Amino acid sequence: MPLADPTHPLLLLVQRDKRYTVDAYLFVLESLTFAQETLGMGDESGDADREAAGESESRSKKRRKRAEQHLTGQQLCEAARLYALDQYGYLAQMVLGNWGVSSTRDLGEIVFNMIDIGQMRKTRKDRREDFHDVYDFDDVFRDRFSFIVAETA
Do the domain assignments include residue 123? Predict the structure, then answer.
């Protein structure tokens, strides 16, 4: 179902919970993909919770492998930090803030909202609190950059 479809679960979620924009949800999904495919993050242990949700045997091997990879809340926060810096550089904090994301707690709220509508999965061990205070946005986005003004002759 394309995202342009007004009945897409993410669009319905954004109408229900106006704290975050659809871009914030897409960013979290892209951060997950970035973590798994680019950073090689994720536990491939085959936890019973994920197996119960299951991937059919007819799906491609790559999709099964990616679906079996699980990130902790802290790992997803780190991947989101790196992805934001990669995509937006020194504007990362401003971009995320415009989408309603100003802390790692917000990333957790987005994840659990998507779990509630079946767009993401969790294990028995996953909790909202796993996303609380993983890092401070000012520390990792604003304070990380310094600008040097060249002296003119």
Answer: yes
Number of domains observed in the structure of the chain: 1
Beta bridge partners of 70: 43
Place of tokens 């949800």: 25
The verdict on residue 56 lying in a domain is no
Buried b or exposed e, range 5-14, using 16+ CB within 10 angstroms: eeebbbbebb
Per-residue pLDDT at 144: 74
CB atoms within 10 A of CB 139: 9
Q: Which backbone phi and psi does 152 adopt, to 5 degrees? A: -100, 145
Does the structure show a pLDDT above 60 at 135? yes
* Helix or strand (DSSP H, E) at 79: helix 73-88
CA angle 84, 9, 29 (to 5 degrees): 20
pLDDT single digits (tens) 75-133: 999 999 999 999 999 999 999 999 999 999 999 999 999 999 999 999 999 999 999 99
pTM of the complete model beyond 0.85: no
